[in-house]
Amino acid sequence: MGVAQGPLLTMHGISKRFGAVEALTDVDLEVHAHEVVALIGDNAAGKSTLAKIVAGALTPDSGLIEINGEAVTIPTPAAAYNLGIATVFQDFALCENLDVTANLFLGREMHGALRRSDEEMERITREVLDRLASRIPSARTPLGSLSAGQRQSVAIARTLIGSPRIVVLDEPTASLSVGQTAEVLTHIERLREMGLGIILISHNMTDVRAVSDRIEVLRLGRNNGSFVTQHASYEEIIAAITGAPRADALRHPTGATLSAVS
Amino acid sequence: MKAIRQIFGGNLRQYGMSFALILLLIFFQWRTHGIMLTATNAQNILNGYSYVLILAIGMLFVIITGQIDLAPGSVAAVVGICVALSIKNWGFPWWAGVLFGLLVGIAIGAWQGAWLAFVGVPGFITTLAGQMLFRGLDQYIGKAASVPVPKEIRYIGNGYLPEWGPNTGLNNSTLLLGVLALVAIVALEIRRRARTLKAHGTAVPLWAMVARLAVMTVALGYLTYLFGSGRYGTSFPVTGVILVVLVLIYNFIATRTTIGRGVYAVGGNRAAAALTGINTKKVYFLAMANMSFLAAVAAIMYVGRSTATGPSDGVGWELDAIAAVFIGGAAVSGGVGTVIGSLIGGLVMAILNNGMYLVGVGADLSQMIRGLVLLVAVAFDLYNKTQGRPSITGTLLRGLHIRERGEATGMERPRAGVAQS
Fold it and tell me: What ipTM describes this predicted complex?
């Protein structure tokens, strides 16, 4: 797994309430460089809430976030970007009326005194698409004429603008065909090869088992099991997701992380 | 066909619209037995319609953000009366009156922008209220009377560039403008080619660039002749100069700046734009404020041309501007549209209007025809979009579109083989 140094991202004791609803209770999460951590769980388990906290779209009520061992706060998406955290939100946050290059750099265009540096941005776009081995015909293609899978490629390529260390992917393969899903999974492997830490949120057990190094299960806003992907059985993971007795037996009374496979 | 594409490159839709415009000009030139394309008529068209084209530029940005502005006519009326009264009654020099008028326009724009951006009242409602509010304000301030403006303001709305220098048979100011424009176009074209070469390693062949420049030179030469050959003392009109300057500035903003990109992004997908960190409120605010600023510019030109303000100044302007923008290819849902397209859309309407007037078509029939043109142009566009086909003019040039795709793919440099991990 290549865990040479300390974790890239450490989240400890994260809690978040929405009114009377406890979305997250005392959740822990660690992500290392060169690692894909899958965050799975049933609907309303708190996966997306946790992702949004990392992305700066939500702030936790309590808990500690460290990046490379330094305590940080992530109040806004811009703060997340500056900390090297890039996020692909669930429904592609892209503009169909703009081309691939424009979407990659949206909100952080490179520019000179007056004019945008379109040529430079286009050059970087082609580089990034190459690195991802993406099958997008041209950096100038309008997004509206790309398939859903290609758009997801663009969304992932977008995370590589700047110098990200952590990439959060919220359901990147939902609503994609089999072939498109395979392409997105290849992109995720590329991100890992580049030495990034990746948080992959997914419903799809096949995808998770194909690409992740570790699996963290959330259930009702709490940690409910932590697995090394290659050693974890399908049944164990499902049990942790659904809260079947077998996973319950392993759960620590305080709800802190317990490795099902140590 | 490929040769044509290489010469004109870029936006075929706009090229096609210009083509439609030229057809229209030729048609009316024929029907009016040559009156359409005379210096006097060309000057009249610019003096009579520049203000609508300027409103269309402002309206374009509002429409790209997915909003609409129904108030610029009323805003223009308020600005007109403020300019006229400040000069006539408060003793402002003419330039201070102009400045005051522009400031009033910006202030009203800020008011409307604030309701849209910060309170969240939809632009349609904000500006419908503004239409009533400012129409009433105009009549309240002006007491529904007509207030004359001084000759400097008249010059802005109806003036010509000076005559000077040797007798060239043309107005020398117009000739100079034509030469300067030609030099600028050649310089920009060469620089653009150098940039493309640097970025891609390839560019359109040299002969294509030369052919393109030749076509532009002929067009520019003709326009210089058309506007410069009128009776002594006339030239390319001042209104035209203001229009061209604004078109250049706003086209640059729309296509080459970060804020312009933000406008398109907000119109394309507001939620996504916000997630990427674009300040959507700022975009809405600026689009609205800018519309009223341009309405102020238009107002000053208009009162200058009509030599006085009146209670019905600006009535219905917003509709002309909106029509120009949509004929020019903007999308009703926002996110799509160009400055040049809106300019051409506005010119199509202006030439239809002028041509039908010259031919002797009554105002009733003329209005009906323009209404149908707007309807058919937008319907045809929408139909083609739902069919996934190119737009109205794209259809004329469909062969070129296929070529365009092929080239876009072909131009990409070959990728490194997809290494499997």
Answer: 0.81
